[in-house]
């Protein structure tokens, strides 16, 4: 069941509830929700998207504070083998049918951000803080198909040993993950001319993640009753396989710090046109594990890493953040109207991930954005925006898992800015992401057959080694001489070796039955991924 543990421990999966790349949040404040194209806007709330534009604000201090609340669901409809999920009972509830729907809920009620800038004739400095990645918690109360499939194989393996003995399976499971990447950005800008500004700075990313979950009480239905799987394996003479169905528990937190160099440019051509660009370099980020342990009755200590060394205490995991190129243009046909358009390229395939997961992408991710604002009067500005996001997944992508997946989407946002006074304004926004379905079909669902075969293979090697040792013991000249002479000690030793030989032969036959059954077993499966995302934002803007 190593694959089961891998899936549980893979809660490093993002619980992102944002727009943007798979590891990057581009909506950094409430202003984004009401106009999704911020790349060429000149505003204190555009410090993230267009840092060079800060140079064109009025002289003095500028401040913005906002909060967003994100609500997301992630749904996967999964099938495995010949309707094998129909045989399962999870957390005491019987599955209904061979297609099973797994649903996770991610909530992030508090997603704060703030911007602070001081602007002079030529030089300006700006500070920006926001959740630059992750951004919430996600809970899967009933597990996922990727690891339930590992348990769903057990009846077939049991029936390979004793045909018709197992008619179902059961287990208890729970998973919860939390992931926040806090980004603190410091930028400096310089006006090269009255119409051209340059920006340079750095963002410090502090990652804080926590994951806990378990797979426990794995059982098989035999004669209408659930029996512990380890007990059945031991009774069948395959006690060596019992650890494969042992309880798996994960209680791990991760933390790490990385730095992102940033450069930007803004060209304010005239009162009608403004164009801007920003480039963020790749962030080298490694997450260090801090894993809990429990003390056993015998005084030994067990680390709660789900049985995997890569989640052991102190281990570091690669989680690089991709480089990003942002381009934007703003056109103002009249003073009261501003039209925006922009594009993002996420260099995802170059950002190193654990187990080289990034190499499974077909190419970079990209976005196209548009927005518009209209000053109805001196008090109210209304706005709306649109964003199309595409990821370089290709067909039947193994980059995504049911614990961590992204699908192409369209987002729409609406909102308003209320000018309370000349120096105080309020932003109110709402945006919704409409995700496309992504169906992935696999001839060997999440490599379950490959993984199980790899787990069983060492047992065959151990049996072969034991057989070699037994043959050598039989061939011992002293033993053979004693047997021929009728020596009681030698005869007793031969009897013991005969028993061992019979046991090894029985185990070899059972193992061969398991391997043959696995080779013939239908492990094809599919996942149909989709998500929902709703974000509400409110913010305040102050000019000193």
- According to CATH, the homologous superfamily of the largest domain is Outer membrane protein transport protein (OMPP1/FadL/TodX)
What's the average pLDDT? Answer: 88
The largest sheet, given as strand count, sense and whether it forms a barrel, is:
14 strands, antiparallel, barrel
Strand content: over 45%
Query: Any idea what the shape is?
Result: elongated
In CATH, the topology of the largest domain is named Porin
User: Residue share in helices?
Assistant: 10-25%
How is this structure best described in words?
It is a single chain. The protein contains eight helices and 22 strands. The strands form two sheets. The protein has a 14-stranded antiparallel barrel. It has a two-stranded antiparallel ribbon with strand order 12-13. The longest helix has 33 residues, at 488-520. A hairpin with a 4-residue loop joins strand 19 (409-419) and strand 20. Helix 4 (154-161) crosses helix 8 (488-520) and helix 6 packs antiparallel against helix 8. The protein folds into two domains: 2-289 and 315-443 and 524-543, Porin, CATH 2.40.160; 462-518. By secondary structure, the chain is α+β, with helices and mostly antiparallel strands.
Topology (SSEs and partners):
Elements lengths: L1 H8 L20 H5 L25 E21 L7 E3 L2 E2 L5 E20 L3 E18 L4 H8 L1 H8 L6 E24 L4 E27 L2 E4 H7 L12 E20 L5 E8 L5 E6 L1 E3 L5 E3 L12 E3 L5 E8 L5 E10 L18 E11 L4 E11 L18 E11 L4 E12 L2 E5 L5 H27 L2 H8 L3 H33 L4 E19 L1
Parallel strand pairs: 2-6
Antiparallel strand pairs: 1-4, 1-22, 2-3, 4-5, 5-6, 6-7, 7-8, 7-9, 9-10, 9-11, 10-15, 11-14, 12-13, 15-16, 16-17, 17-18, 18-19, 19-20, 20-22, 21-22
Helix pairs in contact: 1-3, 4-8, 6-8, 7-8
